[in-house]
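New to this. Please check this protein:
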Amino acid sequence: MRTKNPGLAEEHAAIVNRAIDYIDENATRDIALHDIAAAVAVSPFYLHRLFKAVVQENIHAYCVRRKLERAVHMLLFRKSATLTTIALECGFSSLAVFSRSFKAGYGVSPTDYAGQHTFIKSKICKMENQLWKSYFYRREYNEGNTVACEYTMRMAIRHLPPGRAVYIRHFGDRRTDRQIADSFARLNALASGRGLWRSDTVLLGIPRFPWYLRQPDNGHFDACLTLRPDPAPPADLSMCRLPGGTYAVIRLAEEEHVNRRLMMTCLSNWLPGSDYEFDWRPTLLISYNNPLTDPDRKAFIDFCLPVRSKSQ
């Protein structure tokens, strides 16, 4: 469903965005196409065609994929959860249905999948790169007759309040660094032009896919501008709720591919020895500059990892 009318294209994107937000907020429920269509005030037939045209994936496949992505997250980061618990918490009616869906989606059983992804089970004791030293604490200890050392990332635990944000969503092949940077520039200009900047206003990115695995072709990324409760959101942009909660935060200031490696290192180095586990709320990337215009191509971000106490 292609259109050369920019206004109509924005209207289509807004409808699909509302549908995706509704699905993600109700991912653990058994929702049908007519439920989603009613939530966004269009006919089921129209929504089905529009969703497939914009997302390149039908609604049923999207719903199943998001349930499976949540299940993968629990497999890797909720070690105490049984397969039955994972199946039910992710919205599958039974363990058998979950196992069949998982095998169809990933080609292996949930147990085999978890065994193939063990990147968070071991702590690193050596620096991968000497330039990374500023991101780690160094601790020396005795090992026999020698003094050894280990490094732990400088993560700070913070509680972020719930809030809301307007966003520009990028799907699949429209998820390039250039396009995302252009969206942040558009949001920055919007905030300046409409007087939306406040002391606590930030630009942030939200990867709406398991960023710690191979990036899927059909995953999406939201470029966001946070809003206070009082101003009405701009009518030409979609709005989402930010759940807030406990986050482990670290400031990163490297080229984007290096930042991504450091984000992965948070999972393999800091997380296993902490009192926390990786929660299923959105990961937040608070942005402070445009890396495409930085002389060293560096991205200055606060990487905010959603966490929950292991005792919960």
Summary: Residues 6-25 form the longest helix (20 residues).
